[in-house]
Design goal:
By secondary structure, the chain is α/β, with parallel strands linked by helices. The chain is 31% helix and 15% strand. The protein has eleven helices and 16 strands. The two termini are 14 Å apart.
């Protein structure tokens, strides 16, 4: 007989809170970061244009990823926007993107009056399916944004082959994939540009912040740094503004924390992978669920732990399963970014963009007529409905992973057909 679920009034499998990315219990943050902040405060130089920490952080980050250049930004979303400003698309141009991503990977496209074109995922890892890209390429396609979701690398070789054949720019969204490797290469160094986030939940954090990396710092008639700095060529000594660009500066305070966090990144990734492997082993013989995988020769870094439900063996929806598991003490939710793909959120579905204009969708007739209520990416729709996403962090131990597995077993036992 199965144990009564906490969701229905039974005892919780995990009565005490698990380590979480939301506070120090799940983050490697301590005295070193405090000392770095004090140093910056005592210097009196808190802005990047006055201090040295931002420049140091950029240099060390570029060296870590293996690129020649790195430009810091105020967030991961700002990093993506900086990359698209650098690309300088025409209004109505198209940028291919995954429907399983954060809205921060899409709003920068809209902000430049370009149109996001959603290509379905491979359910194997929930990254963009390379086999489905070419059918979405048109004469207006300028770029592909490849999200390495959950810390697992997308299949980059075929993506780059398609991009090179069609002269498309490839932006890697590595917000969830710090030190993820694809066939011996660090993600962010494979495409033409890589974008990272240092938001609270990421493998390293500066609270908020981001980074754009590339082997070229000038292309499309623009310098990369100017694309996050008001189009301002500061090295010239004048106050020129060469093109429309926002102020996305990182502060010296953020960079100081980032420099310390970089020293802890390897250990954070190791701990995340170590504890997640325990859950891998526990779920490998459970036929009711399937943990996501990654391609051979690749190294994942476990931003989240994700599994999908086998409805042939479970009589429960993804929402119900996630709610029951959360009640047992597991920090989880149904589907990413939610239980519907990103294109079903009002900003895209209802064209909630620039006043009542509907831009950029209404700039091109065919895109203004797309009905986003339909399942335009059926695999993504299914993934959002059937996935359970567990927040992962470096504070989780083997004991915690086994407790999470016990909670999953309990929920399965209550919903097994």
């Amino acid at each position: 007989m199965s144990q009564k679920l906490a969701y229905h009034g039974g005892d919780k499998t995990i009565p005490d809170p698990l380590p979480t990315f939301r506070n120090r219990s799940g983050r490697q943050i301590g005295e070193e970061e405090k000392e770095a902040l004090i140093e910056v405060v005592e210097s009196g130089s808190l802005a990047y244009i006055c201090g040295t920490k931002v420049g140091e952080f950029e240099m060390e980050f570029a060296a870590l990823v293996g690129t020649q250049h790195a430009v810091s930004t105020s967030s991961g979303t700002a990093a993506i926007h900086t990359a698209i400003i650098y690309l300088n698309p025409e209004p109505g141009d198209e940028i291919i993107v995954s429907p399983i991503t954060d809205i921060g990977g899409v709003t920068p496209i809209l902000s430049q009056l370009a149109i996001p074109v959603f290509v379905d995922i491979d359910p194997y890892d929930q990254n963009m399916d390379p086999a489905k890209i070419e059918a979405s390429i048109t004469s207006r396609t300028r770029a592909i944004i490849v999200t390495h979701i959950y810390g697992a690398p997308a299949d980059m070789d075929p993506i780059m082959e398609i991009a090179n054949r069609h002269s498309l720019f490839v932006i890697e969204d590595c917000a969830q994939a710090h030190q993820t490797h694809y066939k011996g290469r660090t993600v962010g160094s494979i495409g033409h540009m890589g974008c990272f986030s240092f938001q609270q939940s990421k493998h390293i954090t500066t609270g908020d912040g981001g980074m754009v990396v590339s082997d070229r710092d000038e292309q499309f008639g623009r310098k990369l740094r100017e694309c996050m700095d008001k189009g301002w060529p500061r090295e010239g000594g004048s106050r020129d503004h060469l093109f429309l660009a926002p102020n996305y500066h990182m502060t010296e305070l953020q960079a100081a924390v980032g420099l310390v966090q970089l020293k802890k990144l390897g250990e954070a990734v190791r701990l995340r992978r170590e504890s997640a492997s325990i859950l891998d082993n526990r779920l490998s013989t459970v036929s009711e669920v399937r943990a996501l995988k990654w391609h051979p020769g690749c190294v994942e870094t476990r931003f989240c732990y994700v599994f999908t439900l086998n409805h042939n063996k479970l009589a429960v929806t993804g929402q119900e399963f996630a709610a029951a598991l959360a009640a047992e003490g597991v920090d989880c939710f149904n589907g990413y970014p939610g239980n519907v793909p990103i294109y079903k959120y009002p900003v895209i579905k209802d064209h909630k963009t620039f006043g009542s204009s509907g831009w950029p969708f209404t700039l091109v007739e065919s895109h203004g007529s797309i009905n986003y209520e339909e399942e335009i990416c059926p695999e993504a729709e299914k993934a959002c409905r059937d996935s359970v996403v567990i927040w992962w962090n470096e504070g989780l131990t083997a004991e915690h992973a086994n407790l999470i597995a016990d909670a999953i077993d309990k929920v399965i036992a209550n919903y097994r057909r």
